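Could someone model cytidine-5'-monophosphate with this protein?
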Amino acid sequence: MSLSGKKILIAISGGIAAYKVHFLIRDFVKKGAEVQVIMTPDAEHFVTKLSISTLSKKPVYTEFYSDNGTWNSHVEMALWADVMVVAPCTANTLSKMVHGMCNNLVIATYMSAKCPVFIAPAMDLDMYVHPSTKKNLEQAESFGHIIIPAENGELASGLIGQGRMSEPGTIAKTVEDFFNSNIEKTLAGKTILITAGPTYEAIDPVRFIGNHSSGKMGFSLAEEASKRGAKVILISGPSSQVIDDKNVTLHKVTSAKEMLSKVFEFYDTIDIGIASAAVADYAPKEVAKEKIKKNDDNLTIELVKNPDILKTMGEKKTHQFLVGFALETQNEEENAKGKLAKKNLDMIVLNSLRDEGAGFKNDTNKIKIFTPTEKKEFNLKSKDDVAKDILDFVESQLLK
Ligand code: C5P
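Reply:
Sure, complex below.
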């Protein structure tokens, strides 16, 4: 989740484009951000506090005081935020922001905020091109705010031109790019190959042998490596995870054999290899051409060993730094260290199925890292944070 732990304050002002903010909030929340929404009193004509608070999972404030007499501290909300997004920003709110006309909660919060401010203006086309709007936008930019320009198209008035609020996806991307650009590019110039997800081994045209791996750990690693400036080759078995990142090339495969041959298309060019895929150890010896009929009480399928992709990578290692994963249920540390040596790895990440919240399908993981000479234990964390720990550790080893 690319916005994990980020605190986003959204201010909605009273324009028809306010309905689109539902999608923006959902997107931010899905990506792991905490979202606090405040609105101008007029915004309530366009969206309800109920729909917004349901999506943002927090109360929505429009006034300095709540009905029960409590104080909605604009200062606290302003200082809490990592970024503030004013969307839609009407001509009126823009003008108040620029001139410090502090007569509602949104402007008071804005004026107390020290964080970066994003402005997504929305207004009818003649208002958008009016010299006062242009001047106010220039002024807002001179304060260091980031303007997300309105788009061209049909406006609520029926007129056609510039003035539509930017699409929620564009606003979200601008905010995400901002967070990413602040991350130190510690892996710039490095190429990282990551295997992820399960493999499916066909039995017949409709059935396969697979496992419960979701691919989440590998995709989180790919996203984090990209943020740090690496070029990422992500080779994934069947997984519902998605990634839209210009530094990550996703190659989808199905079986272990396909994964092996894809890995070796790139192996010579990579600096770091991380094998987080849960590769099936065995595959059916023969794949039936037609769907197997249920005639007999018993069915025997002969299985043969799959290639061990990581072991093969270890055997052919020249300069690559290799990281493996071990998912163990017993003698965890001993088994993990055994694999580290047997597969000629530089580092292995152990997760135990005994730890609640760790392993397959969960959004969290609890790991221990081993190198031939070191051991480090970590707490239960989100897979995004685990990805950071793993890459921090890889980087510390590369510096040695
Ligand atoms: O031997 P084991 O399956 O426990 O090893 C786990 C590690 O080896 C993981 O990093 C996994 O991605 C990798 N592996 C592989 N090819 C296999 C089996 C495991 O790359 N056939």
